Amino acid sequence: MSDFDVKTFKIPGQHYLDGVLLGGYSPRESIEMVKTFDMFEDDCVVSAYPKSGQTWTLELLYLILHYDNYSENEETDSLLRTPWLELGKIDNARIRELGEVPRPRVFKTHVAAHQLPEQMREKHSKMIHVLRNPKDVAVSYYHFYRMDASLGRFPGTWSQFYEMFMAGNVSHGSWFDHVLQFWREYKDNKDVLFLHYEDMVKDHAGAVRKIANFLGKSLNENVAEEIVRRTSFGSMKQNPATNFSKYEGFDYSVSHFYRKGKVGDWKNYFTVQQNDEFDEVYRAKMADSGLNVDFGE
């Protein structure tokens, strides 16, 4: 590892779109497809910067919308039930497959705010944007970079990854740019719900009710409790449909997809100098945005 030069590290299929680094798993043509994707008024898109609690939110949302027939497809992989719009090469078969997802459809995306489907505003489709404090995001992303083949299984140290993260030289670019673009564009849009990962951890049942209310869905107490049970960290980590254990690209000897799910794990990684530097950048970038996150301090 001592011979590793972070400056020469590249992820498979690395390319740039609008100045943002992306991996081969999200080709340019796939992201362009997202912009023109046909939407329905009852569609819901879950957007997020990577490692922000998006997979958890997708399962919560799917259960709220499809609880009555969930038992029929609970063993179906989550990527089939809640497809990732820009994942992989887009062709006619893929577009047809996305169009045939049972309504109300739930989609995942990591695209930037200006790359979202243009029909979302016209059709008043719903969107949930998940936010997580960037220090925990950075630590979670570091471990994900280490175990995921599509991100090159990063062989470097935490400090080297931290420098990449701060420079925005990771897939999907700068956390600050990604999050602030969504916030400024959609914070006053009634069809968009901003969810904070830390709030979801503190009040899991409250998150279920908040999402249900946003979607105009009424849940009885027994259903709400069952959704909470099915979407607990332990349940999702053990569920083959949600834990990605069948995906050969992940090296679970390095890290699990579901690692800790806690708030404040960054304290075990950030040095005093890194923390001071990060706080200075955070204050400058987030000034006057009105957006606050919980670092678990």
Description:
This is Sulfotransferase 1C4. It comes from Lingula anatina. One of its GO terms (molecular function) is sulfotransferase activity. There is one protein chain. The chain has 297 residues and is of the alpha/beta class. The chain has one domain (6-286): Rossmann fold (3-Layer(aba) Sandwich). The protein has 14 helices and 6 strands. The chain has helices at 28-35, 54-66, 70-73, 78-81, 92-99, 119-123, 134-147, 158-167, 175-186, 197-202, 204-214, 221-230, 233-238, 272-286, and strands at residues 15-17, 20-22, 44-48, 106-109, 126-131, 192-196. The strands form 2 sheets. It has a 4-stranded parallel sheet with strand order 4-3-5-6, with helices on both faces. Helix 11 crosses helix 12 (221-230). The chain is globular. It starts with 14 loop residues before the first strand and ends in an 11-residue tail after the last helix. The model has no long low-confidence stretch (mean pLDDT 91).
What is the CATH homology-level superfamily? P-loop containing nucleotide triphosphate hydrolases
Helical element count? 14
- Strand percentage: 5-15%
What value does the average pLDDT take? 91
Helix content: 40-55%
Number of strands: 6
Question: Distance between the terminal alpha carbons, to the nearest Å?
Answer: 32 Å
How would a textbook summarize the main sheet? 4 strands, parallel
Biggest sheet strand order reads: 4-3-5-6
Overall number of structural domains = 1
Order of helices and strands: EEHEHHHHEHEHHHEHHHHH
Overall geometry comes to globular
What is the correct CATH architecture? 3-Layer(aba) Sandwich
CATH-defined topology: Rossmann fold
- CATH level 1 class label: Alpha Beta
Question: C-alpha Rg, in Å?
Answer: 19 Å
Detail the poorly predicted runs: none
- Please state the oligomeric state of the protein chains shown: single chain
Structural class: alpha/beta
InterPro entries: P-loop_NTPase, Sulfotransferase_dom
Family: Belongs to the sulfotransferase 1 family.
GO molecular function, one term: sulfotransferase activity
Organism: Lingula anatina (Brachiopod)
